[in-house]
Amino acid sequence: MANNQNITWHETVISKHNRRGLNKHTSSVIWFTGLSGSGKSTLANAVDRKLYEQGIRSYVLDGDNIRHGLNKGLGFTAEDRQENIRRIGEVAKLFVDSGQFALTAFISPYQEDRDSVRKILEKDEFIEVYVKCPLSECIIRDPKGLYVKAKSGEILEFTGISSPYEEPIAPELIIETDQFSIDKCANQVIAYLKQKNLL
User: Cβ neighbours of residue 106 under 8 Å, at least 6 residues apart?
Assistant: First the structure.
């Protein structure tokens, strides 16, 4: 473990409050969690588009994209998944501190890991969105062909097949992507943000 004894936290000159004032809106993490194929990335991007059209600053942090760079060296063991979520939680917090909405699309299968991200943010800065879709439907969709590989044993420790997914205990929102169009699902998220005076 690294020795952090000689590291000092430096406060920024421009505060989160200042940046929110400049942007004319608040900031938070919208954490989309769900099985592979549930529609997390599609929904996050649809919400991002709606925020952009309203002049709201936001950015999508996608699970696959992050593993191409920041988390390139991590695998899919429980420990690596935990570190994956820890790192992205810290990055998402930086976006919140910059006065923007961070839309994260990660399976993030463990409740404990999601809760650990919630703990590093202030009240109302972590919005857990459970992108709920039956496993059977995710398997039918299988946009990346991953379920086929997982069932054949080609992919080990695959969430929903050989690795568990812990459904959120008390998410701020549950969006059922098998019941509504992506546009309607995105509108549900926007409606929640307006209801909570976050926009």
Answer: 31, 32, 33, 40, 61, 63, 66, 84, 85, 88
